[in-house]
Amino acid sequence: MFKRKVSLTQIKKNQRKEVLDVVLIEKPVDIIIDSEPLVNIICLPKDLKELSVGFLYSIGIIDNFKEIKSVSIDELESKVNIQLKDPSTFDLDSLEINPVSRVVETTCGISSPWRNFIKKTLDSAKEHLKATTKVRIQKDAIFKSIIAMQKNTVLFRETGGCHGAAVFDLEGNMMSSKEDIGRHNAIDKVIGDMLIQEKSFKEVFLTSTGRLTGDSVLKAIRAKVPILASVSAAIESGIRLAYAYGITLVGFVRGSRMNIYSHPERISIH
């Protein structure tokens, strides 16, 4: 269960009335790898397989879905149990991350120890993104994709309480769309969905309803996605990473307007 009805007092036009409204439920979900607890993610308990696969990919534990032997979800205990095909490829003790840092909250995304862990995965991504400098996309494809993503965020329209993320091809055709209370969780979910479906990240771009923070940009870098666009603002940490790794960062995509913070050459206006 990820939503429920609550009774509330609504004041509107100087009138008070009792109404029922739908609210989302957030839960702490444990991701277990080969019987060892890895991380506790506070999230919308929906699309947990996609979330778990996307998170493992984002932090560099897996490179593709084929490296996973099985994924089982225990909804009662709020646990996702994952078995790797080759357990020797990942040593949990090598993380050197204390238990407190293994909690990923809805607001903060990847904590500093996790960022240190994923640095090793970013060098190859940087070289790949440099090779995508000739990728071009029409501005109208970005406007179109943002509208499509917003139309697909059903839970946001119903509750106003979650973020959305989506992956599109360069023509603006949707390939995946997911929602979560946390903006970074929503991105992990679409990345996980793409991996599970064995869809390529080649010549695609990523959209989000959330702020373009360093955490969000790191996920785009890891997936080697050259363009990340959002209806919201970019944060300095996100802009800095986007410049360094060759990501075209686009914020405030609303109506006929967008702000391009880095590598604007990929966006064509004619």
Radius of gyration: 19 Å
What's the total helix number? 7
The portion of residues assigned to helices is 25-40%
Oligomer: single chain
CATH class of the largest domain: Alpha Beta
How far is it from the N-terminal to the C-terminal residue, by CA? 46 Å
| Mean pLDDT score | 91
Shape: globular
**What string gives the helices and strands in order?**
EEEEHEEEHEHHEEHEHEHEEE
According to CATH, the fold-level topology of the largest domain is Cytidine Deaminase, domain 2
- Name the strands of the widest sheet in spatial order: 10-9-11-12-13-14
CATH superfamily of the largest domain: Cytidine Deaminase, domain 2
The structure class reads alpha/beta
**Proportion of beta-strand residues:** 25-35%
Low-pLDDT segments, ≥5 res: none
Q: How many E-type strands? A: 15
What is the correct CATH architecture of the largest domain?
3-Layer(aba) Sandwich
* Count of folded domains: 2
